Amino acid sequence: GYTRIVLALVSLYYMPIHPLTCFTTYAVSCLLDALDGLAARAMGQSTKFGAVLDMVTDRCTTSCLLCFLSSAWPQYALICQMLISLDLASHYMHMYASLDSGSASHKKVDKGRSRILNLYYSNNKVLFTFCAMNELFFLAAYLLAFPAFYQQTWPWVVAAICFPVCAGKNIINVVQLVKAAKVLAEGDLDARRKAASAKANQ
């Protein structure tokens, strides 16, 4: 987890001046996202702090990359801003709703709450594919901001392949936001009913 943060900082430093170094360090940081949880569980070092640090690192790195994209592609700045807002809001509300409802982890989503989120969080292969291709699309868009890569074919191919999955990932973020809002609203209503019942019994 700490290695991810160091690599992310290195990628941010090189982001405006050395695209290949930034791409490599950012990509390795993202790949470690799939390994840190496995390593923690294998060594008996799973902690709440580690889980939160992992999510915060994801949100921060993606937001920083989208900030760069909004300046590199100003015609898409509003889209980048909306994607940052959606990413942060959906994950914060989902995490808060999970804790408020007594769930041991934000990745434990009952099918009754959402089949989409259940599949997304319970299947590591699905989760890795969506997250990896989401970041790959943004990285491809980042490389295309530089003339040397804009004229090459492979960044365009990567962007074209990853775009549908990236779109799907953000649709999942919308679902996550809506479901979390519903859980919190139902919790508020339940708390009010209990308070009213307790007051009536006094």
Tags for this entry?
202 residues; mainly alpha; Four Helix Bundle (Hemerythrin (Met), subunit A); 8 helices; lipid metabolism; magnesium
Provide the fold topology.
Layout: H1 2-14, H2 19-42, H3 48-72, H4 77-100, H5 115-122, H6 124-143, H7 147-150, H8 154-200
How would you describe this protein?
There is one protein chain. The chain has helices at 2-14, 19-42, 48-72, 77-100, 115-122, 124-143, 147-150, 154-200. With 202 residues, it is mostly helical. The protein has one domain (1-201): Four Helix Bundle (Hemerythrin (Met), subunit A), CATH 1.20.120. It is elongated. It starts with a helix and ends with a helix.
Question: How would you summarize what this structure contains?
Answer:
The protein is mainly α and 202 residues long. The protein has helices at residues 2-14, 19-42, 48-72, 77-100, 115-122, 124-143, 147-150, 154-200. The chain is elongated and about 75 Å long.
Overall number of domains: 1
Within the CATH hierarchy, at the fold level, what is the topology? Answer: Four Helix Bundle (Hemerythrin (Met), subunit A)
User: How many individual β-strands?
Assistant: 0
Distance between the termini: 51 Å
What composes the largest sheet? Answer: none
Strand content: under 5%
Low-confidence segments:
none
Going by helix content, strand content and strand pairing, the class is mainly alpha
Please give the radius of gyration in angstroms.
19 Å
CATH class, please? Mainly Alpha
Helix proportion range = over 70%
| CATH architectural type | Up-down Bundle
Shape: elongated
Q: Please give the count of helices.
A: 8
Order of helices and strands: HHHHHHHH
Mean pLDDT across the residues is 90
Protein name: CDP-diacylglycerol--inositol 3-phosphatidyltransferase
Main location: membrane
GO molecular function: CDP-diacylglycerol-inositol 3-phosphatidyltransferase activity; metal ion binding
Organism: Ascobolus immersus RN42
